[in-house]
């Protein structure tokens, strides 16, 4: 077992301590940290960014060659950790011999520790993991409304001020993490995009907790982890191939899933029906083509799998509050002025 001891609340010190114990090459750009590891301990990276004084984001995308535990030994009585597992699994406990709480793929986890016991986040060897963690110091949060909500929801009336909550499956968060990782901009634009996405992920974590509480005690069927993986694959397939003439029968047969699980999965993941999701993807792809290609509106309609230009204009206006032609003309003016 490889144990990595962390005794600081500050991201810079955290990454210094991790590097000292795991090795690897640490790159620092502005408020971003990235530790590349490729040695006898593991292969992959750990990255992090400070969002504000009270909030930091850390992502583990690595495969350890032996069991590994990150042990937070500092006083973290004011901290709340919002975790999400995109791949593999995470084991959390308070103290080495405490109850083991397992965060599986596509699950959210919320952890808070007010006792003298250290908080353990553990990973199994030879397992590809991708885990994201947003840590919030409730004492230093600027926004009073957010501070009060966090304290009243996650810190109030908890035994020993300890909280270990494992949520139900959620694919929307995985989607937002992928968007966060795909940000290529630099400078202030990059900072603003990263900050907004981390806040959005945090909001989804809190929303998931509220949702699970409302469902507690009710008898309802949740989709399995394998079902949600299929829904994720179907979503990605539609996004990559918007031009196909889809039907529920076609998708069910192609991916081997029942109509009920398909519809239920899209409701859970996207809060949309399958048909509405396809329509929305086509409009978004069309908007991108208007901005980035020289195709005319009729060609774009055909490219995204629609056959009626008037119908396309209707759904485009519903989403963007203007006609496709007006939007295209505006883009052209911007190019000319630039």
TrEMBL record:
HTH araC/xylS-type domain span: 232-330
Transmembrane segments: none
SMART domains with a match to the protein in the record: HTH_ARAC
Cross-referenced InterPro entries: Homeodomain-like_sf (IPR009057), HTH_AraC (IPR018060), PchR_regulatory_protein (IPR053142)
The entry's keywords: Transcription, Transcription regulation
Protein name: AraC family transcriptional regulator
Lineage, opening ranks: Bacteria, Pseudomonadati, Bacteroidota, Flavobacteriia, Flavobacteriales
């Amino acid at each position: 077992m490889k144990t990595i001891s962390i005794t600081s609340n500050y991201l810079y010190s955290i990454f210094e301590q991790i590097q000292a114990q795991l090795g690897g090459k640490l790159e620092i750009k502005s408020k971003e940290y990235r530790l590349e590891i490729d040695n006898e301990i593991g292969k992959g990276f750990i990255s992090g960014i400070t969002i504000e004084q009270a909030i930091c984001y850390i992502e583990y995308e690595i495969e350890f060659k032996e069991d590994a535990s990150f042990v937070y030994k500092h006083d973290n009585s004011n901290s709340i950790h919002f975790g999400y597992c995109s791949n593999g699994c995470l084991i959390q406990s308070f103290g080495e011999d405490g109850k083991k709480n397992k965060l599986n793929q596509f699950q959210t986890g919320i952890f808070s520790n007010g006792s003298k016991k250290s908080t353990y986040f553990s990973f199994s060897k030879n397992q590809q993991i991708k885990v994201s963690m947003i840590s919030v110091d409730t004492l230093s949060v600027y926004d009073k409304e957010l501070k009060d909500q966090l304290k009243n929801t996650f810190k109030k009336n908890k035994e020993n001020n300890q909280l270990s909550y494992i949520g139900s499956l959620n694919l929307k968060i995985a989607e937002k993490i992928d968007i966060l990782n795909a940000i290529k901009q630099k400078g202030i634009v990059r900072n603003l995009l990263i900050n907004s996405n981390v806040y959005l992920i945090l909001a989804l974590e809190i929303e998931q907790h509220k949702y699970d509480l409302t469902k507690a005690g009710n008898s309802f069927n949740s989709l399995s982890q394998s079902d949600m993986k299929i829904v994720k694959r179907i979503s990605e397939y539609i996004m990559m191939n918007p031009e196909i003439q889809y039907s529920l029968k076609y998708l069910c047969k192609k991916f081997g899933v029942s109509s009920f699980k398909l519809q239920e999965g899209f409701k859970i993941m996207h809060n949309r029906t399958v048909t509405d999701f396809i329509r929305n993807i086509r409009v978004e792809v069309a908007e991108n083509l208007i901005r980035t290609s020289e195709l005319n509106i009729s060609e774009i309609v055909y490219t995204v799998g629609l056959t009626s230009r008037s119908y396309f204009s209707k759904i485009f206006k519903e989403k963007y509050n203007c006609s496709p032609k007006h939007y295209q003309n505006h883009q052209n003016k911007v190019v000319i002025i630039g």
